[in-house]
Amino acid sequence: MRRAPEEKQRDPERTRARILDAALTEFAAKGFAGARVSEIAARAGVNKQLISYYFGGKEGLYRELTGRWQAEESAFADQAVSLASLVAGYARANSAHRELGKLMVWEGLTEGVPADPAFVEDVRRNVTELGRRQSEGEFPGDVDPGMLLVACFAMAAAGVSFPQLVQAATGLDPGSAEFGERYAEQVALIVGRLGS
Fold first, then answer.
1. Residue 143 carries which DSSP code?
2. Quick check: 2 pLDDT over 70?
3. Helices and strands, number each (H, E), in the chain
């Protein structure tokens, strides 16, 4: 039975959620530069002006999605006792939320775009935290904390960055829960050996 127009009610939260889901799919597939607001709106089944209304445009929509990743990251990063468990948490998160991980990969592939100052500040805090872990003996003193951070990020994102390599090397689907858990366990073992 069709509702009369006066019976239809707007559901702003559901509309926002549909836009965010559509944007995540588009940004993950095409990167920020390749994604088009009109395509995001069409995928979400909304007028493209709603993207401006709810998010202030494409940039605001992208910031909202990267905020989701930061919230996901905070959920496991704050609970990580060791560097090994922290990197394993990143590997699990990248496996469970591949589209969010792809956003960061696309950012890295888009040359000439200045890094978000908040991101730079967050990374520098992470390097400082690694320095603290190093001083406590969690990994050797001759390992550069900044370089270790880069290596750990690359390791954690391998399933998103190199799905063809994962498939060839392991025979597992890089988007599967089985790969995500097995890979996280192995990453934890590898990183844990740094302290041996």
1. S
2. no
3. 11, 0
